[in-house]
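are you around this afternoon, could really use another pair of eyes. what follows is a protein written twice so to speak, once as letters and once as structure tokens for the fold. i want to understand how the tokens follow from the sequence so walk me through it. anything you notice is useful, everything is just below.
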Amino acid sequence: VAAAPNTASARQAFERASQGTGFVVGQAMAARSLLVFFDPQCPHCATLWVASKPLRDRIRMTWMPVAFIGPSSAPQGALMLAAKDATSTMDLHETLLASGQGGLAVPGPADPDLLAKIKANTELWKSLDATSVPHLVYRVGEQGPYGTQSGGMPTAQLAQLLGL
């Protein structure tokens, strides 16, 4: 369910969500900015990942892993945060997840500092009254409007949400 755009609460949600830890895809200086809370085990998050690809030349997305679906969620999120090329790592993970292989294999114990960041992201996501993933908090221009949206969506719907 989308929040009313440009409300003070939507702007505050964006400012609070900006404190999370994630990896950036798309254009670093784009006016349209999305903060995406995702669980690495979420198939709807995978749908949004794929749907966002055609728009990445015009938007900035920060993908922030949270962990609540399963025991591999946090370790897989840590792999993505640690990756030198997070986009390629996420592409591989989503391909493995879509093919029923459960996503990336975790080679050993995850970095405790990265696990702490994912735990903090999860608490931040909960504090935004989010109950599902993907959960988007967005800004359409430098001054807004701002909004929130939960759930995956096709490319056309994402473009419409962002005024593209």
